[in-house]
From TrEMBL:
Signal peptide: none annotated. The chain crosses the membrane at residues 12-29, 35-55, 67-88, 100-121, 128-153, 165-186, 207-227, 233-256, 284-304. InterPro entries: Na+/solute_symporter_sf, Put_Na-Bile_cotransptr. Keywords: Membrane, Transmembrane, Transmembrane helix. This is Solute carrier family 10 (Sodium/bile acid cotransporter), member 7. The lineage of its organism: Bacteria, Pseudomonadati, Pseudomonadota, Gammaproteobacteria, Oceanospirillales. The keyword Transmembrane helix applies.
Length: 330
């Protein structure tokens, strides 16, 4: 039983769940809340600084010429995904309530993942160069596109939040884009050192997200999150995330075949276009939303993140079992 459990829940997932439990029973209030807020902002800036320093221009250029593949990935990430979320909204609101339904829409507006999309593509023997390019570009484009999609998709005033696209763009630029660009400009000086510290620096990514999750859920718990999210809503939310992922996995694979992509390209499209990034989504929610609204906005992302990892791990293993053909080696 324990081996089956550990197959689907890795150490980091358990830590994320631990942060939610810690915030539930020991939320940060008063002076502790202020300290955690500033510590979280510093961690987010450091996170994006390191992402900028790690991003290789050569990796982007290696796959950038495969424009049909990238166009399909970006169309799913920033058009089809939000459209599916919007179409599901009439069903989601009565089942989940307005705030969790808005959290589902926020989820659909996010860019794709980088590490897991590339890792699953490699495991499944897909087009790795194109995956590196698409995943990296999606993460970078999302810093600017996601706030615009949020403005279009979410009626934030009805959700109890105020929203100005210009103010948000400035906040995004100062907290995320400026550290990212600074890190990338310093890459010639620190890139080699960072590459040698990969195992240690990966902890910065994880720690930053853990801090944001704890701080966000602390504010939401104090405001009565779990009184507003009973067990039946959590079950409906899990089902909604599963249905959304299943739809995207089916549509990406079907469309890739209809458009004549080979199997390696199909794999890259499926894994790059079906993911939503917690590494970008969590800190961006910290900028876009405030107070008690953060928890409901992040809860769908956390559930979807775990489901996508479990489903795509099984799918990658299935793809990896296929025999190699000359077309894929080319």
């Amino acid at each position: 039983m324990w081996q089956v459990f550990r197959r689907f829940f890795d150490n980091y997932t358990l830590l994320l769940l631990g942060m939610v439990l810690l915030a539930t029973f020991v939320p940060a209030v008063g002076q502790a809340e202020l300290v955690m807020t500033w510590l979280t902002r510093f961690a987010i800036g450091l996170l994006f600084f390191l992402h900028g320093a790690r991003l290789s221009r050569q990796a982007i250029l290696a796959g950038i010429m495969h424009w049909r593949l990238h166009g399909l990935v970006f169309s799913f990430t920033f058009i089809a995904f939000p459209l599916l979320g919007w179409l599901m909204l009439p069903l989601l609101r009565p089942l989940l309530g307005n705030e969790l339904a808005m959290g589902m829409l926020y989820l659909t507006a996010l860019p794709g993942t980088v590490q897991s999309a590339i890792a699953f593509t490699a495991l499944a023997r897909g087009n790795l160069a194109a995956a590196v390019c698409s995943a990296s570009a999606s993460s970078l484009i999302g810093i600017l596109v996601t706030p615009l999609l949020v403005l279009i998709l979410l009626d934030l005033e009805a959700s109890g939040a105020s929203f100005s696209f210009l103010d948000t763009l400035i906040s995004i630029s100062l907290q995320l884009l400026v550290p990212f660009v600074t890190g990338h400009l310093l890459r010639p000086f620190i890139g080699e050192w960072i590459a040698g510290q990969r195992s240690w620096l990966s902890k910065v990514d994880q720690t930053s997200i853990l801090l944001v999750v704890y701080t966000a859920f602390s504010a939401s718990v104090v405001a009565g999150l779990w009184k507003d999210v009973p067990l039946n809503k959590l079950l409906w939310l899990t089902l909604a995330c599963s249905v959304l992922l299943a739809l995207v996995l089916f549509l990406t694979a079907w469309l890739a075949r209809r458009l004549g992509f080979n199997k390696a390209d199909e794999i890259t499209i499926v894994f790059c276009a079906s993911k939503k990034s917690m590494a970008t989504g969590v800190p961006m929610a910290q900028v876009l939303f405030s107070g008690a609204l953060l928890g409901p906005m992040l809860l769908p992302l956390m559930i979807f993140h775990q489901i996508q990892l479990m489903a795509c791990a099984q799918l990658a293993a299935h793809y990896a079992k296929r025999p190699e053909v000359a077309e894929e080696k080319a």
